[in-house]
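Case study 2.
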Amino acid sequence: MKATHTPRTARRGRRIRGAVALAGASAMLLTACGSQESGPPTLTWYINPDDGGQAEIAEQCSAASDGKYKIETSLLPRDASSQREQLARRLAAGDTSMDIMSLDPPFVPELAEPGFLAKPPADVVERTTADTLEGPLEGAKWNGEVVAVPFWANTQLLWYRKSVAEAAGLDMSKPVTWDQIIDAARSQDKYLGVQGTQAESMTVWVNGLVASAGGEIITAGEEGQDADITLDTEAGKKAADIVGTIGKDGLGGPGFRPRTRTHP
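Prediction:
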């Protein structure tokens, strides 16, 4: 996601409101402030190091402004935790170089609650949220209001090798279970491309496992810190069994192995 922020102290520089036409579904952009130097203001967009085309979009928007402003990009760290840490520290310190930010949806509430995100104008919200899927749109809201502009989002897909599925007797035109996929990997002596890194990627996978079993990790999320968070459910136990089986049986490849702890 992408968002501009509201600084703690008012800037003396020129203020511009507007939105770049963004295609897709999960990022944000909003109010930004220019410098005090003569000429068009320069806005800084802190972007993720991915293939989202953000740098190209910045160039296109700068050209489309007819010299009214220029957008430059600044690259954030590669991993999500470091991105969050850098943005949060800069915002808390009142860094006035931060005009536009690309954010992961989980960071939106954290930065919106203390007032770091500028509220987008109504016409910007109308143009940038039309035909947006419900999930990405809800991720751009806080307290029922849009505080970010949906830009692009990813989703979980099951990729498979057709020849392997056929050899294992899987009918991929119908729903399949993780147990079936695990059995297929065993019978064909293949690895499963699953996420074993202790980071957001594995969190997303575990959440997907729980959801596919009809469960939820978080209930009463509107209660904030008082929300009910647990994996001690039938769906959570099934998810743990799947992850454990893949790890113990070596079906996730050399990089997916259960950790062992040594005690003094």
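Residues 162-248 form one domain.
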